Amino acid sequence: MAAASAKGEKLPMFVIGKSKSPRCFKNIKHLPTQYTSQNKSWMSSEIFEEWVRKVDRKFRVDGRKIALIIDNCPAHPTLSNLTNVQLVFLPPNTTSILQPMDQGVIRSLKAYNRGKVVRLISRALEEKSLVQRYQFCKE
Fold first, then answer.
1. Phi, psi at residue 13, to the nearest 5°?
2. How many Å apart are CA 15 and CA 83, to the nearest integer?
3. What is the pLDDT of residue 129?
4. pLDDT at 119
5. Which of 18, 38, 116, 137 has the most CB atoms within 10 Å of its CB?
6. CB-CB contact of 67 with 88 (8 Å)
7. Contact 92, 98 (CB under 8 A)
8. Under a CB-based contact definition with an 8 Å cutoff, are residues 85 and 62 in contact?
9. Are 68 and 3 in contact (CB under 8 A)?
10. Which of 95, 112, 105 has the alpha carbon at shortest distance from 11?
11. Is residue 83 pLDDT above 90, yes or no?
């Protein structure tokens, strides 16, 4: 999930995966995103509520109030007792037209992250081949 303000301030990415502890996170001590797991890797109302309440606490500590524009999805319930976050739900069937994150932001974000992953894999493969060449030369 991606969330940002009109000024360009970004909330940390929120990722939902299938595995509770993915092997790729084995030696990772800190993720730059929030990660949770769910059987189908889909947003559920429980996960959404937990995330919104966490965002509400963050903005309460910062002393700021925000309006969060959200699409009209069954996994996005109306929540009460929020002090610093106001949920603004889009009308049904208008998300692709009105939702700012659907206006190319998410696609650009995915393209950037995929490119970054490809560069990391390429660098790792190059370093591995250099190590293998070095070991071959030593023998």
1. -60, 150
2. 25
3. 64
4. 85
5. 38
6. yes
7. no
8. no
9. yes
10. 105
11. yes
